[in-house]
């Protein structure tokens, strides 16, 4: 039985002209992370950066006016969080972002739950 990797490689090999039969254009990329063999062997922060890279590449390809990101920086240290923030400011100037984070931010909202009702704290 073929593995998933073999099936994907076969599909890519069969589509050597750059388009699939459904006329979807694609590009492939090989990435290595300090000689780690698979994404499963990456640290949480490294996986977060890979995930964010893929998501942001898709957002750049097909932009929207508003994005909501929930705790995407949880596994990142402060320097990577700041770099992601700066990248969003420079590369997505026509979009707005609502980013939920447990780290320091430029705008803070706080709510408290009293008697079954959420109120501003």
UniProtKB/TrEMBL annotation:
The RecF/RecN/SMC N-terminal domain, residue ranges: 41-106
InterPro entries: P-loop_NTPase (IPR027417), RecF/RecN/SMC_N (IPR003395)
Pfam families: SMC_N (PF02463)
Superkingdom assignment: Eukaryota
Name by which UniProt lists this protein: RecF/RecN/SMC N-terminal domain-containing protein
Protein's organism: Glossina palpalis gambiensis
């Amino acid at each position: 039985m073929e593995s998933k990797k073999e099936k994907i490689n076969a599909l890519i090999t069969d589509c050597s002209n750059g388009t699939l039969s459904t006329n979807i254009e694609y590009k492939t990329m090989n990435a290595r992370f300090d000689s780690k063999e698979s994404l499963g062997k990456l640290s949480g922060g490294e996986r977060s950066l890979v995930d964010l890279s893929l998501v942001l590449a898709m957002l750049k390809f097909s932009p929207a006016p508003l994005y909501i990101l929930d705790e995407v920086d949880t596994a990142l240290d402060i320097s990577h969080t700041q770099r992601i923030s700066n990248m969003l400011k420079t590369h997505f100037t026509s979009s707005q972002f609502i980013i939920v984070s447990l780290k320091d931010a430029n705008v803070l909202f706080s709510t408290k739950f009293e008697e079954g009702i959420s109120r501003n704290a």
